[in-house]
Amino acid sequence: MVTPSPSSIPESSTSPGERRSTTTAARSQPSAVQRLAASLERSWRPIALLVALFVAWWGVTAAELVEPYLVPAPADVFAAITESPDYFWQHTWTTTYETVLGFVIATAVGVAAALVMVQSPTVEKTLYPLLLFAQVIPKIAIAPLFVVWLGFGLGPKIVVAVLMAFFPVVISMVTGLKSVDPEMLELSATMGAKPAQTFWKIRFPASLPHLFSGLKVAATMAVTGAVVGEFVGADAGLGYVILQANGNLDTPVLFAGLVIMSVLGVLLFVLVEWLERLVLPWHASRRADAVTTTL
Known about the structure:
Blueprint: H1 16-28, H2 32-62, H3 74-83, H4 85-119, H5 121-136, H6 139-150, H7 154-178, H8 182-190, H9 195-232, H10 238-247, H11 251-279, H12 284-287
Helix pairs in contact: 3-11, 4-5, 4-7, 4-9, 4-10, 6-7, 6-9, 7-9, 9-10, 9-11, 10-11
């Protein structure tokens, strides 16, 4: 038997410790099946609740416990949408445009205002009470003023949407910028980092989780703001559809407008959450998706 010499044995390019760490990291990465199972584990409860509510709605109307002109049957609501798809699509697009534009403006202005407030305590002490005062005022009460000032076009709807979505954005961004670990800031200053480098490398990334939390709230609030603006004065949009249906006692169309408005808000929320997953794959809330716990 010929024993191979040590020189004839090929050496691995990685050490045993590196191979073990690589194997452990590979095992820690969830597979597609595990990610799907975790997603189903998170989503089955709200889906089950929606199904239960739908069944209860159907059961109440089928048993005729309430009059049809008060609560229409789900089939009647679905028929109202399918019979006039162009009508609902046109008004849904109008509300969507107002909502997205108001949300984008609120995000840009809110982030800029938060940066100024964090950099200047004097500005923060001056603006914060005004922001709180503006948030407390019911938007439905001041929406007619915007109609008087801006007319019956898109302006009043977009302004109301901005006002509804602005506060969550600016508050979450300020909180995020202030939640940076002071030791990290001291370390960066000790290492000679410039203020701009500290902001882009430490402050801004640390504020993103808080910002996206505010953006999720702002996305749904922007839908409400656009519809509130349409309630005051409009000839298009889901708010207009709901007002017209209410005046005509057409509850199937009214419910259809409410359902579409709710779906629009959910879709915008899901879009923001998808962007959060794309931008913040490193955050703990994202890594927790790979962990499945049994309560």
